[in-house]
Amino acid sequence: MARLSKRMQELKKIVAQIGVVDLATAVAELKRLEDRLPEHIKRCRFDQTVEVAMRLGVDPRQADQIVRGSIVLPHGIGKSQRVLVFAQGELAKAAEEAGADFVGGKDLADRIKDGWLDFDVAIASPDMMSVVGPLGRILGPRGLMPSPRAGTVTQDVATAVREYKAGKVEFRVDSGGNVHSGVGKMSFEEEALRENIQAFIDYVISLRPASAKGTYVRGVAICGTMTPAIRVAI
């Protein structure tokens, strides 16, 4: 196991002292973690992404207990996502006008097969799935494969583009029953971060599978790209 840096060791001590707190307190403590480090410890100088993780009482091996979805966060995520759209004709024009970074068909599919993956989201119109389908083995493991359930296979490609440009995020429960997502930047105001995180939590709660038994939300935590997680009281 890799040895923790002095900075991370100190941060873990601080987080242990914070304990389990309500969301507003967790956000406030997360934003001031760097300020609480001893003076001789080097601070993180870039604007870290803030992430939320939820441990759910579901069995992802059961198809009817897979929790996945997408949500447009109230205050965006603090970065512009590079959106690729598989479309042709009028839909291709609409995607371009909505702000898509890359629009095309077989030409884009061929680039992806050759190893090009310089985009964050892939959207496709239904009539392009014959072109997109064979890319599953490349895009699937990276969470980039367009899907009707995620809203990335749609006839209304323009709306989908605008939503992702505005800060829409996707998530899917992993094999351990966890869902997680970026929800903003450390530079966000506390209220904006809190509202983004609360919106994500509320949405995941609304997706509780009918077949899930017992406690659904078993744990919530927030962290920065370079910080330990602070546990949030449920």
Structure description:
The chain has 234 residues and is α/β, with parallel strands linked by helices. The protein has helices at residues 6-18, 23-31, 89-98, 106-113, 129-132, 136-139, 157-166, 190-206; strands at residues 49-56, 68-72, 83-86, 102-104, 121-124, 168-172, 178-185, 217-224, 230-232. A 4-stranded antiparallel β-sheet has the order 7-1-8-9. A 3-stranded parallel β-sheet has the order 4-3-5, sandwiched between helices. The protein has a two-stranded antiparallel sheet with strand order 2-6. A hairpin with a 5-residue loop joins strand 8 (217-224) and strand 9 (230-232). It is globular and about 60 Å long. The protein starts with 5 loop residues before the first helix and ends with a strand. The model has no long low-confidence stretch (mean pLDDT 94).
Give me the Rg, rounded: 20 Å
Count of helical regions = 8
Largest sheet: 4 strands, antiparallel
For the largest beta sheet, what order do the strands appear in spatially?
A: 7-1-8-9
Count the strands? 9
Q: What is the mean pLDDT? A: 94
Structural class: alpha/beta
Give the proportion of residues in helices.
Answer: 25-40%
Bin the strand percentage.
15-25%
Query: Which sequence of SSEs, written as H and E, runs from N to C?
Result: HHEEEHEHEHHHEEHEE
CA-to-CA gap between the ends? Answer: 31 Å
- Shape field: globular
The unreliable regions are: none
